[in-house]
Write a structure and sequence with these properties.
- This protein is of the alpha+beta class.
- It folds into three domains: 9-135, Fructose-1,6-Bisphosphatase, subunit A, domain 1 (Fructose-1,6-Bisphosphatase, Chain A, domain 1, 2-Layer Sandwich), CATH 3.30.540.10; 150-257, D-Maltodextrin-Binding Protein, domain 2; 265-381, Nuclear Transport Factor 2, Chain: A (Roll).
- 32% of the residues lie in helices and 30% in strands.
- The chain is built from nine helices and 17 strands.
- Strands 11, 12, 13, 14, 15, 16 and 17 form a seven-stranded mixed sheet that branches. It has a five-stranded mixed sheet with strand order 1-2-3-4-5, with helices on both faces. A five-stranded mixed sheet has the order 7-6-8-10-9, sandwiched between helices.
- The longest helix is centred in the N-terminal third of the chain and has 26 residues, at 39-64.
- The protein starts with 8 loop residues before the first helix and ends with a strand.
């Protein structure tokens, strides 16, 4: 089936999201049964879905909007988008973890169009498992009907302050996957607010925010400042989407509960990498295709894909148990992290001191250089 070339931007965004959603649903139904897949298999299914949906969206955008630029989670960032007047911001599969789990419906496809001087002008969020596509040109927000407001948060990275926020607002907290799924829950009236402060990228929120704003909901950073897109570093770590009558109360409470400054985009990228040393999940780590890694003068990675693969499956990372005393310094386009790294060796814990240098000239890490040294607490009995 072909797409009508006369579709306007809103119609095209919806059609693209729907097509990618159909592809993902077909793949998922074919590969995922009623029982959970092994962790590695589930992750591979999600990655396959991400890549296939990304290829479909890029192909259709090249066909229907060949002059527009694209910023996609699954593709290398092209800095030429910064000079473009029209940029499509897409997340081919938002909620990849949930996509790989049987029975989960909280995953989505995001398609948004950013235009210079106007922001997000067209957007669509598809929730294929629900058979729904929410469009910025046709949506309206439903009123929630409950005695206590419901706040939805990430089920893997909820804000540290959300418990205290819920107490102040007399609200209940519900975890949920996918930024798009949470935003659309607010739009449908199934929730009253979506709060996030655990790190996100522009593709995570551009389409949900585009739809939510068009529907009349409040959308901002958690400090009340605007959400701005098509930036050199597409890191956009936090947001609040809520009913307008709750915005003032929630923003004031969040301001009282927070105070620590947020990571810069470059530091956030370095922190994500360090976190993957312990979680063995490199899904959110942004590595350039030709990224290299050097440890104490020895080359240990020659490509982004190799480094990511080693982070997830390399036996050398399995004994790592903790990162302590972590500090960051930012110098131009470079980030330097200093920390103590604990590892299990038999019944003992060994500790080394690490200085790790990250080259981050754009939206991806291009080089990692580590100096690893013994530490006075190198050896000690585990409790």
């Amino acid at each position: 089936m072909t797409i009508d070339f006369d579709l306007d931007d809103g119609q095209l965004a919806a059609e693209l999201a729907a097509r990618a959603g159909d592809l993902l649903l077909e793949l998922r139904e074919r590969e995922l049964g009623e029982e959970p897949l092994p962790k590695d298999a589930a992750r591979e299914l999600s990655r396959r879905g991400d890549k296939e949906a990304d290829a479909l969206l890029l192909r259709m955008l090249a066909e229907h909007r060949p002059s527009d630029a694209v910023l996609s989670e699954e593709s290398a960032d092209d800095s030429h988008r910064l000079d473009a007047d029209r940029v499509w911001i897409i997340d081919p599969l938002d909620g990849s973890r949930e996509y790989g789990l049987p029975g989960r419906t909280d995953w989505a496809v995001h398609v948004a169009l950013w235009e210079r001087g106007e922001g997000v002008t067209a957007a669509a969020v598809a929730q294929p498992a629900l058979g729904r596509v929410f469009r910025s040109d046709t949506c309206t927000a439903a009123a929630g009907e409950r005695d206590r407001p419901r706040i939805v948060v990430s089920d893997s990275r909820p804000p540290e302050f959300v418990g205290a926020l819920a107490d102040r607002a007399g609200a209940d907290v519900t975890p949920m996957g996918s930024a798009g799924a949470k935003a659309m829950a607010v739009l449908r009236g199934e929730a009253d607010a979506y709060v996030h402060a655990g790190g996100q990228w522009e593709w995570d929120s551009a389409a949900p925010v585009g739809v939510a704003v068009a529907a009349g909901l409040h959308c901002s950073r958690i400090d009340g400042t605007p959400l701005v897109y098509n930036q050199a570093h597409p890191y956009l770590p936090d947001l609040l989407i809520c009913r307008r009558d709750l915005a003032e109360t929630l923003l004031a409470s969040i301001a009282d509960l927070t105070g620590a400054s947020a990571d810069s985009p470059r530091v956030a990228m370095a922190r994500e990498y360090l976190g993957s040393l312990l979680t063995h999940d490199a899904t959110k780590v942004r590595l350039a295709a030709d990224c290299r890694r050097v440890e104490n003068g020895r080359r240990t990675g020659d490509s982004g894909s190799e480094i990511a693969r080693e982070l997830e499956t390399g036996e050398q990372y399995r004994p790592l148990t903790g990162i302590r005393d972590l500090t960051f310094g930012e110098f131009g386009t470079d980030v330097v992290a200093r920390f103590l790294l604990d590892m299990a060796v038999g019944d003992e814990t060994h500790t080394v001191a690490v200085t790790e240098h990250f080259a981050v000239p754009g939206a991806e890490i291009t080089a990692i250089t580590a100096i690893i040294e013994p530490h006075p607490s190198t050896k000690g009995s585990t409790p």
